[in-house]
Amino acid sequence: MKRLISFCGVILLAACLLCCASSAPVSHTETSGSPVYKITKNGNVMYLGGSIHVLRDSDLPLPEEFDYAFSMSDVLVLETDIDLMNTQEIQEYLLYNSFFLDGRSLRTVLSPQTYETLSLACDEYGFPLDDSVQLLKPSMVINILTVLQIQELGFLETGVDQYYYEKAKNINMATAFLESVQSQIDVIVSMGEGYEDEYVLYSLRDMGTTDESIETMVAEWKNGITLSAEKSLADMINEWPDLYKSMITGRHDTWFPQIDQFLASGKTHFVIVGFLHLPGPYGLLWYLENSGCVVEQLL
Fold first, then answer.
1. 203: containing domain
2. Where are the alpha helices (DSSP H) in 223-281?
3. Which of 260, 266, 251, 268 is nearest to 293 (CA)?
4. CA 280 to CA 30: how far, in whole Å?
5. How is residue 99 annotated by DSSP?
6. Domains in the chain, number
7. CA atoms of 72 and 76, how far apart (whole Å)
8. In degrees, to the nearest 5, what angle opens at C-alpha 150 toward C-alphas 145 and 153?
9. Rounded CA gap, 11 and 140, in Å?
10. Distance CA 222, CA 217 (A)
11. What does each C-alpha distance from 7 to 2, 92, 141 come to in angstroms?
């Protein structure tokens, strides 16, 4: 349990790596630029940046367009309040929701074959499925393995979000958040509910290709190329529609009205969200383009 507590913050930041086309495609899906966009509507301006939530030293410096958008903005907007992630209240909330409380366990929700496959993977990362973790939900075991994997690959517990959040605090810049930390936890712990075997096997298979795909993912992110992100979204829509709804469309439904308010406020907001939220048939770029905004990729 102590080990799970130590993972609280980075579990939330790393969840996006588990899931690593519009009907009228536009040029930003094929050209190289940056993961930062200038949004204009009715004379008002907003900036939108796609983040990777965890980074390696080798991924720095960040694309300079982030600094430009930050310097031109009055308010920094993030998905959630990063500072709350390691508070006692959030740790307790994550712990309470990470465990089965209804008599189920890993052994009862997973088939013997899937349980054995997961157990072997856990042994490989030094996280054995002993009695102390039998009540953990499969989503949390997968997230812990993901944390251990990205740590092995040299990723830090900080990313674009954390970097600019600290900059904003240092200059007393106003900040806002699209959702609560609790709502992000609700999404993470519910992953795979009702199809635990398929979710675990798919996630372990996906983790097996991380070494090969990570360089492509980071390189495309730096250049604002959304091809791999769009493929990930298309795969999620086809194979995991419930996961796509909980991670993408369900959250966007609550984000879109807030973004409209930012654009109408008269202040310039710099919104930073996970890169996977930008493209796709219900992504933020799709929404902005279809709501009368002019969307320009910063080059």
1. 2-20+22-297
2. 227-239, 241-244, 250-264
3. 260
4. 13
5. B
6. 1
7. 11
8. 130
9. 9
10. 9
11. 9, 12, 11
Q: Which residue has the tokens 């250049």?
A: 223
Contact 243, 142 (CB under 8 A): no
Which tokens in the block code for residue 1?
């349990």
Residue count (the chain): 299
Q: Which amino acid is residue 20, in one-letter code?
A: C
pTM score: 0.88
**Amino acid in position 31:** T
Q: What is the pLDDT along the chain (299 residues), one digit of tens a residue?
A: 444 434 444 444 445 444 443 333 333 444 568 999 999 999 999 999 999 888 888 888 999 999 999 999 999 999 999 999 889 999 899 989 999 999 999 999 999 999 999 999 999 999 999 998 999 999 999 999 988 888 888 886 678 999 999 999 999 999 999 999 999 999 889 988 999 999 999 889 888 877 777 788 888 999 999 998 898 899 889 988 888 898 899 999 999 999 999 999 999 999 999 999 999 999 999 999 999 999 999 99
Q: Structure tokens of 209?
A: 């290709």
Joined tokens for residue 160: 């674009």
- Give the contacts of 186 (CB within 8 A, at least 6 positions apart): 97
User: Dihedral (C-alpha) 274, 148, 140, 195: value to the nearest 10 degrees?
Assistant: 80
Extract the tokens encoding 266.
Answer: 């008269």
Tokens of 114: 């899937």
